[in-house]
Amino acid sequence: MTVHSLGVEVSCDGPDEQTDCPASAAVPIRFGSMTPRQVRADGREDGWTRRRRAGRLVDLCTGCAAP
Ligand SMILES: [Zn+2]
After folding, report:
1. How close is the Cα of 55 to the center of ligand 1, in Å?
2. How far, in Å, is the centroid of ligand 1 from the Cα of 65?
3. From ligand 1's centre to the CA of 32, what distance in Å?
């Protein structure tokens, strides 16, 4: 998860701890979404999920969330 001070980007953390997202996916931000909470809501509409992994929350794109 990466949050930039200029705008917000929620990027995929990859299928597991050692593997980066093969697509380097980031949530496409809809107009008016300014905060990480809003951007994650955008992502959920596109099928993104949040999971707890090793004690922290990770964001997963549809490709990496697939079993
Ligand atoms: Zn991914």
Report:
1. 19
2. 7
3. 24
Domain that holds residue 65: 1-67
Of all residues in the chain, the percent with pLDDT exceeding 90 is 78
Indicate the pTM of the whole model. 0.82
Q: What is the CA(47)–ligand 1 centre distance, in A?
A: 11
Ligand 1 centroid to 40 CA: how many Å? 14
How many domains, the chain?
1
pLDDT at 5: 52
Q: What HEC string does the chain produce?
A: CCCCCCCCCCECCCCECCECCCCCCECCCCCCCCCHHHHHHHHHHCCCEEEEECCEEEEECHHHHCC
